[in-house]
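User: Predict the structure for this protein chain, please.
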Amino acid sequence: VRKTIDSDYQLRLSPSSDNKYIAYEYPTNLKSNNYDIHLLSINSNYETVLTNHPASDRLLGWMPGSNKVLFTSNRSGSWDLWSVQVENGKLLGLPVRILPEIGEISPLGFTKDGSLYYSIFSRMFTGLITSFNMETGIAGQMESKRSIPGSVNFVEWSPDGESVAYGKEEKRPDDYFCKLCVQDLTTGTERCFDENFRLYNNSIRWNSDNQTILAVGYDETKRGQKNYFGGIYSFDTKTGQMNEILLLKGIENDINPLYVAVAEWSSDAKSIFYVSYSLDGDQTENRITKYVLKTGEEKVIYKGKNLKRILRLSPTSDNLLFAYVNPENKEVHICTIPAEGGEVLEICTSQETDRLSTAAWFPDGKSIFFAETPTLDYSKLWRVYSDGGKPQYVCQLPHLDVCLSIHPSGQKVALTYGEQTTEIRKIENLEQGLNNIYSQNE
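Assistant: Here is the predicted structure, written as structure tokens:
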């Protein structure tokens, strides 16, 4: 073992052509999204930093058969292609910019003739509000739609129906960052909260006071802290105050608990319910737990496996809506359980696929709507009575993995969906271009 790195970052490595050194990238500190590029000797303890800069430098790799290390950097304001020369394990000269505005790319490899293959990824979430009919869904209603500006996801109506909360995604130097925002639909005023809070999952829930929001996410100021995996937080939409309710518990060598966590208020707002991972002997299971805010007392409501990120309290009763996947037949079982625990009622199973992205109560508490994505072309919206029965097909949704929130009146719905693209590109004759640039700088 040449070096042990204590980090959950996915790092890039590249050996030199003579196999004497390894170039690798590493965060400047565990609370930062910026990287530097390091050089490690394979046969000794020698190590140095190649790109010690306040900006972020991301490794692409060692140009085959040369002493040049290629990387991308935003040190000039845009993501450009740069090169640095290495001689006997030491930096030779200053970094040289090779190509401007290449973007945030991921390296796929070099060819023997010095060409570079890379991929570039982009994504966008769309949020819109449209009229809704419980029998026909959004069919024939889309002409009245209202868009929510930006890349937004997980839209959730306020109890009075006058505001929406959502995750607003922005591109940061190293990744996409989703922050919690609220928009007053009457004035169009938007307010976003704590810049260090990264929102996860479809887990925005309004308190009945029309002011406090419950959310699952990650406090970036705690990045690098041992045993910090994110948590459940509340936000006061009037003051902007963020409060930590509880921290999620991780299981060694298991899935990040953020990937399954979702939370919901109790009807009196004195407790919350949340989905988490836990150990039952040596087996991992999911739990729905009630957490009393004042005392911290916990009560397990349900134990099972393969829970979906669905947890909704009925607007008219103390029943929790949840769902789990049967791994044998890939069916999703949509169920309810009393909020204090008790007998589980299976409402229905998924109709065409286990790719079920959302489930929501109708405001009268008598029906449940859920969306499935059976193909790569569209989703389908279904409705089932809350006491069970055969689901009824409502309408086709022209997007994949749609999340929905139904207005308290039942006459409008907020929809969100995502679109993403990945392109593979090639830079030809890169070695020749490098040589020309370096010869001009001599």
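DSSP finds one helix and 33 strands in the chain.
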